[in-house]
Amino acid sequence: MRGGFFVALSRRSGGKVPRTPINATVYVFISLVLVSILMLMLSSIGFIINAKNLGLSVFLGVRGGIYEFSSLVSRTALSVKELADLRKEHAELLNQLERYEELERSSAEIYQENIRLREQLNFSNTMRYDRIPAEISGRDPDNLFSSIVINRGSFSGVKNDMAVVAWQNGVQALVGKVIQTGTFESHVMPVFDVNSQVSARFSVSRYEGIAEGQGNSEIPLLMRFVPKRARNEINIGDIVVSSGMGGIFPAGINIGRVNSVNVHEYISTLEVSVIPMIDFSKLEYVFVIASEAEIEMKQNAAIKAEAIETGLTND
C-alpha cells in the first residue's frame, strides 16, 4: 500500500520524486562534528607539541645532569690534585721553616758563645800567671758527678795539683784542682767535693780557715777552724778567697760568699757556710793555672836569670 502511494505520487509529479527539505538539526549536527574534528585535531597537535617539549626537557635535563656530574668529577679531581700540591708545598714550607729556625738557633748560640769567649779572652789577658784554657767535656759518673773532665791533658802542659779557675758573671773564682792527668783529658776535683780542702781567708777581716766541700754543688761549702773571736768581724756576704797556704792554690782567688756563721758550744772554732761563686751547672770554660809553688819557682828562676844577665852586662 505504501508502495502504491509512492507510485501514485510519482505519477502526479511527472515521474520525479520530490526532495525532502533538510532539517536545521542536521546542520547543527554536522557543524558540531566538524568542530569536534577540528578540536580533536588541535588537541592532537598540542599533545604532540607538549610531548615534543617534554622530550626536549627530559633530554636537556639528562644532558645537564651529565654535564654537572662530569663537572663535579673534574672539579673533584682538580681539587684532589690541588690538595696534593698544597700538602707538598706545605711540607716544603715546614722544612724551610725548620731550617730557618735551626739557623736562627745556631746563630743565637754562636752569638752567645762568641760573647762568652770574648769574656774568657778578656779575663785571660788580665791574668798574672800562666794559664791553659780548657773546656768542660764531661763529668765522671764513678764519683757521683763530682769529678769534672776537661779537654786538656799533659800534651797541653796540664799537671796534677794545678789549680783550675773560671770567669763567670764578671767574677774570677776557684773551680778546683787537677787530680788526674791524661794525654788529652784531665779530671778536676771541684771545691764542693767531700775530699776538697782549700786554705782560705776572709777578704775583709783576714781571718783564715779551711774551706771544705760537702759533696754537692747545691750545698754550701763549710769553712772550718775559724777563731771564735772573729765572730763579730764576719758578715753575711763577705768574700772568701784562697790564702795561698799549702802551695797549690795561688792566693787571692775568689771562692765564695759567707752565707751563715754557726757557733757551736762544743767546739772552739766557728763553722762558716760559704756559697761558691761558681755556678757549676752553667760552667763551660775554665783555665788551668800553675800552683803557687810552681809560680814561685818560675819567678825565682826569672829573677836569677835577670841577675845573671845583669851581672854579665856589668862585667
Strand order of the largest sheet: 1-2-5-4-3-12
Q: How large a portion of the residues is in β-strands, by DSSP E?
A: 25-35%
Q: What is the name of the CATH architecture of the largest domain?
A: Beta Barrel
- Compute the gyration radius: what is it? 58 Å
Helix content: 40-55%
CATH superfamily of the largest domain: Rod shape-determining protein MreC, domain 1
Count every beta strand, where a strand is a DSSP E run of 2 or more residues: 12
List the helices and strands and how they pair.
Blueprint: H1 2-12, H2 24-126, E1 131-139, E2 148-150, E3 163-168, E4 171-181, E5 186-190, E6 197-202, E7 208-212, E8 221-227, E9 239-242, E10 254-263, E11 269-276, E12 285-289, H3 292-314
Antiparallel strand pairs: 1-2, 1-12, 2-5, 3-4, 3-12, 4-5, 6-7, 6-9, 7-8, 8-11, 9-10, 10-11
